[in-house]
UniProtKB/TrEMBL annotation, chain A:
Record-given protein name: ABC transporter ATP-binding protein
Residue intervals of the ABC transporter domain: 20-249
Keyword Nucleus: no
Taxonomic source organism: Bradyrhizobium zhengyangense
Top-level taxon of the source organism: Bacteria
TrEMBL record, chain B:
Similarity field: Belongs to the binding-protein-dependent transport system permease family.
Protein name in UniProt: ABC transporter permease subunit
Subcellular location: Cell membrane
Keywords, sorted A to Z: Cell membrane, Membrane, Transmembrane, Transmembrane helix, Transport
GO CC annotation terms, alphabetical: plasma membrane
Its membrane topology: Multi-pass membrane protein
Pfam family, one: BPD_transp_1
Major site of localization recorded for this protein: membrane
UniProt-listed CDD domains: TM_PBP2
TM annotation in the entry: 60-85, 97-116, 175-197, 217-239
Gene3D superfamilies registered for this protein in UniProt: MetI-like
Domain ABC transmembrane type-1: 56-240
From TrEMBL, chain C:
Protein name, per record: ABC transporter permease
Domain called ABC transmembrane type-1: residue spans: 60-244
InterPro entries: MetI-like, MetI-like_sf
Family (UniProt): Belongs to the binding-protein-dependent transport system permease family.
Transmembrane residue ranges: 68-89, 101-120, 126-148, 185-203, 223-243
GO cellular component, one term: plasma membrane
Cell compartment(s), UniProt: Cell membrane
One GO BP: transmembrane transport
Predominant location category: membrane
Annotated Gene3D superfamilies: MetI-like
Amino acid sequence: MILLARLDDAKAARQQKPLISFNGATLRLGGKTIIENLDLTVRPGEFLCIVGASGCGKTTALRLAAGLYRPTGGAVTFDGQAMLEPRREVAIVFQDYGKALLPWRTAAGNISLALEASRIPARERPGRIAELLRKVGLPAHAEKYPAEMSGGMQQRLQIARCLAQEPTTLLMDEPFGALDAMTRQGLQDEVLSLTAATNTTVIFVTHDLDEAIYLGDRVVGLLPHPGRIGIELDVNLSRPRDQLATREHPEFLRLRRQLFDFIKATEH
Amino acid sequence: MSLARTKPLLLPLAALLAFELWIRLAHLQSDSLAPPSAVLAALVAALADLTIPIATRDTLLAAFAGLAIGSIIGLGLGIAFGVSSMLDRLMEVTVEAIRPIPSIALLPIALIALGFGYRMEIVIVTFACVWPMLILSRTAVRGIEPRLMEVSRALRLTPVQRTIKIIIPAALPRIFVAFRLSAGIALIVAVTVEIAINPLGLGAGIMLAQQALRPDLMLAYLVWIGAIGYGLNLALIVVQHRLFGRAATAGAGS
Amino acid sequence: MSATAMIWRMASFAVAAGFVGLWQLIANLKLVSPVFLPGPDRAWTALVRGFASGDLASKLVGTLEHMAYGWLAASIAGIALGALIGSSRLMRTYIAPSLEFLRPLPVSAIIPVAIALFGLTEGMALFVIAFGAIWPIMLATIHGFAAVEPRLYEVARALQMSRPAVVFKIALPSALPDILAGMRLSLTVALILSVVCEVLAGLDGLGHWVLLSARAFRSADLFAGVILLGAMGYVTSVAMSLAERRLLAWQSMR
């Protein structure tokens, strides 16, 4: 019975109205087709990972979802409306944290930028900033400038600034690509717990297959030139995930094998 | 491609045309302004009767003489300060006390000591050119790869050999940038001295044209001085590219 | 400051004092005619006497005023125009090349034109100083605005920041190092042009003071004025450095 109920839940979730959908989305830039006829839906609360060889258009797909690019064909919708401009409930975490932070503002100042943009009154900001810094594990670094922080700390700060927007959706573009393995694992678990706590929808772009399976409810692999969907896998691994147990699970290894073969095949 | 090249020319051409039309249509009789066509005519006339060429020769003579002397002094001091940090530290207060004196403030001193003419102008240009050369060549020498200095020690080069064979060649691209900067300063200071007081060269020419209520000639001088400044800068940039390639120019940050 | 640095500083002051002593010796031995070269004692006496009578103080204030008004006007206009041009690709294509063309123009050449337009007045001086000082600031601002990290503009879009907010919170702070460097350069230009304008137009200030002293062969007064001009250059440049260090504290963290 319990098993059946779960299946029903899953089915219900499938039929739920999608939060983000790409309907035949196409993007041409300077005579080149970067993305062609992309059909993809993301359910509310889902953690979707996008993988693919470099140059397959995964970052471009994310920028379409963010409203930083407009599709030249088809449509990208958010909550039923066309996504033509960025919206405050959709936050984007860039890979190059060093360029995305304001070097002349302290950690607190960088978070404040998002609060100012949301017109949060000045007297409410310090409390919110302190809470956000605590959430991402930087409570003691409020007065530090980005240049005084390590790469991992800077990326935490960027995540905190995105959370300050109180987004329902988080778009992450290879956020941990430039970090060392230990820092990366710590941040993976933090992102999972932060987004689970607020039931945030996530699209996470990465070139690391293990990371994609470890984090995602679903993994989509893109084919390059032009970018389109090549493979779509549901990740049926229990949550909360665990860096050791999850990665040793036979299902994890099976998915990993499948994705690996897919990527291998696209690289020719 | 040709459209992209003409775009930057549109604005100045339009401005000149508007200026011309405005003066012609308003029948403006002014002691301070003249239409571009009259300016062009005055420029051609002054070039033809050699007043502008002679004035140019005088100005450039003073500017280049000052530039040469100032560059040599500045380069010598800059290399000395760059090689010996002891000398640099000992001279720091003296240099910082003299450097901020605006070059033009020396004008009256040079005037009573040397009178009007080339000499006083050259002295002031020299003073102005020493500082950028000193500061930048000092930085250039400090920036030489330490391994090169070790090589020169291992080879037991004498200080003179070391300066000629290692230091100057290694620092040359940046020294040339300093020289280009100084050349611009030399021209500016020379013209300024002539405008302020010294009765020779382009600066005196433009002042004379103003006092003679010849706005066409005055503006012709202005255009010519601008062209000289632009041409000098351009020529030195071309030389710099030829000698050191693009990398050196990019590194200069201009 | 560490103990060694202190010792070097003191040694450096001792060297400077040695040079002043040498100057005194040359003057005492009359190696150079006292008409041209007063000793430091006479220059100092003239400085003290000038301040005691109030003459020199009022001249100092005069020059400071010329410099400050011109420089401030140039800063405000230069930053505003530079921001306008630098933040628009269209403006950069059409206008920036013309400005680059004017960059090497010896700005003092505009003085005769300004005299023709405004006469020998304070207004002429203000125009000349502001005109000369605006270029470094405006060109630096254009460069600073054009060089803002594109990622930051995307952050601003993602946060849906308003246009004024983007200018004041992203572009202006990002361009600030360039702008301040331009303002520092302009400070020197403003001081030089203040002196030249005072010399030419007889406006109340140190430039006029040194010229009159030279004409009357009062060399002690002349040197007092030159020393004061050097001190002005020094103090304003130190003040600018302090402001830069304060405003750009985030840069030194790198």
